Amino acid sequence: MARAPNYGQERKERDRQKAAKKAEKLAAKAAAKERSKPEEKTDAGMETTK
Fold first, then answer.
1. Tens digit of each residue's pLDDT (9 = 90 or more) over 1-50
2. DSSP the chain
3. 3-state secondary structure of 20
4. Which is it for the CA torsion 21, 26, 29, 35, positive or negative?
5. How far apart are CA 9 and CA 21, in angstroms?
6. Counting Cβ atoms within 10 Å, is residue 37 exposed (0-12), middle (13-18) or buried (19+)?
7. Distances (CA, A) of 29 to 8, 32, 35, 37
8. Which listed site, 8, 25, 27, 31, has its alpha carbon 20 to 30 Å from 17?
């Protein structure tokens, strides 16, 4: 005999996976943005301390 579907649990699991994927995508996007920043800002800060 087949078990009764638990739609609430299945929906929560799909939402959890979707949220995890979205968070991972945002983290990757933020990391890419950080890498693409020009390094002149950090160099300029070092020059003023000399």
1. 889 999 999 999 999 999 999 999 999 999 999 999 887 655 555 555 55
2. -PPPP-HHHHHHHHHHHHHHHHHHHHHHHHHHHHHHS-THHHHHHHHHH-
3. helix
4. negative
5. 18
6. exposed
7. 31, 5, 10, 13
8. 31
Both tokens of 43, joined, read 């160099």
Tokens found for residue 1: 């005999």
pLDDT, residue 1, reads 80
Q: What is the Cα–Cα distance from 32 to 47, expressed in whole angstroms?
A: 26
Distances (CA, A) of 16 to 3, 21, 23, 28, 38: 23, 9, 11, 18, 36
